């Protein structure tokens, strides 16, 4: 049986939920979206190191998330300072 994770309603996120500049979390940590493709989302791990989040190009490796990864992603709500 094949599962299309882009159509999952419960848990996780859908491709359309992602926006450039937003933050989300996975089991591997917190991520910052840098690009969105037709079927993938590209993100960098969040870091407190000054200047590392400035780009492109970024000082850290960008990671590609595809439809198989979206179910394990959860949006982080921004809390006003």
Structure overview:
- The chain has 81 residues and is mainly beta.
- The protein has one domain: SH3 type barrels (Roll).
- It is built from no helices and 5 strands.
- The chain has a 5-stranded antiparallel β-sheet with strand order 4-3-2-1-5, with no helix packed on it.
**What name does the CATH topology carry?**
SH3 type barrels
Helix content: under 10%
Rg, Cα atoms, Å: 13 Å
Number of strands: 5
Helix segment tally = 0
In round numbers, the mean pLDDT is 85
Poorly predicted runs: 1-9
Give a quick rundown of the structure.
The protein has strands at residues 23-26, 29-36, 41-45, 63-65, 74-75. It has 81 residues and is mainly β.
Question: Secondary structure elements and their pairing?
Answer:
Layout: E1 23-26, E2 29-36, E3 41-45, E4 63-65, E5 74-75
Antiparallel strand pairs: 1-2, 1-5, 2-3, 3-4
Name some characteristics of this structure.
81 residues; single chain; SH3 type barrels
């Amino acid at each position: 049986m094949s599962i299309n994770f882009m159509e999952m309603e419960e848990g996780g996120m859908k491709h359309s939920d992602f926006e450039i500049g937003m933050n989300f979390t996975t089991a591997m940590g917190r991520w910052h979206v840098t690009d969105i493709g037709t079927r993938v989302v590209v993100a960098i791990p969040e870091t407190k190191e000054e200047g590392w989040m400035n780009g492109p190009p970024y000082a850290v490796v960008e990671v590609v998330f595809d439809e198989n990864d979206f179910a394990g992603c959860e949006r982080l709500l921004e809390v006003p300072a």
